[in-house]
Amino acid sequence: MKMSPLLKPCCLALAILLPASCNTAPQPAKPRIALVMKSLANEFFKTMQDGATAHQQAHSAEYELIANGTKDELDVARQVEIVEQMIAQQVQAIVIAPADSKALVAVCQRAQAAGVVVINIDNKLDAAVLAERNLRFPFVGPDNRKGARLAGEALAQQLKPGDQVAILEGVPTAFNAQQRKAGFEDAMKAAGINIVSSQSASWETAKANQVAAALLVEKPELKAILCANDSMALGAVAAIRAAGKAGQIRVIGFDNIQAVRQLLKDGQVLATVDQHGDQLAVYGIEYALETLKNKTSPADRETKVDLITAGQTKN
Hints:
CATH class of the largest domain: Alpha Beta
CATH superfamily of the largest domain: Response regulator
Largest sheet: 6 strands, parallel
Mean pLDDT: 90
Oligomer: single chain
Helix content: 40-55%
Strand order of the largest sheet: 2-1-3-4-5-11
Structural class: alpha/beta
Number of strands: 13
Radius of gyration: 20 Å
Strand content: 15-25%
Order of helices and strands: EHEHEHEHEHEHEHEHEHEHEEE
CATH architecture of the largest domain: 3-Layer(aba) Sandwich
CATH topology of the largest domain: Rossmann fold
């Protein structure tokens, strides 16, 4: 039987997916791995997709890849729908960066019950919900709290005890957002720096710009803004410029996306954290292949984070 073009290795971007009723093909000779990400409008996830694509092309004899992402970070329903479609297409494994740590558990459970290997990357599924359902999904990803603490410590070196700072959080229901906030708090508490506001900007540049602009008015003594990702850092930098406070308020981010690197050189962003997004999906894919081959579930694996400043890279 001739394989559908939708399942060929070249079709690695957002796919037009077949309904379950159309899936009558026999199991393929090599496994199909589905990569399910969050918003591809976020440079971090585009980098993740590019890394996965390059890996598949280098290992095209070993597996096929179907890469999917949502239109925005908050589209949990669409991500659930994508996973359902991957189950219907009978992929052998799903590597998922969940948009919400709790809301994606149920559909991942359905995938596992259908015999699909599920590997959790980037944002960890909620441990309490997993325990309640007696589920186990191996997690491959960084220690977000440690990474955020590194950036916070770099910032603390530029401030003094009692200085006022604000945090721009990610989506509050995402485990990585919670951990990055905690890491920032760890560093500020240790340095005696005062967190006067902590608000969610949902990972998004435009929302971060709005929140930061309001903070600059409400908190005139603000010395820094700690952003849980670089997309929000871009919004904060724009707000600082618009307020005529460039050079007066420090910004840190997280992800080391290309768009923030010139801002690091220019001093508009003090530091960011590289969690090596181009490799995160690759690590998950390799774990999925290992699991399929050995019929065992691998343990969690922590991936590295590096502090990135204008002048140094630090593990």
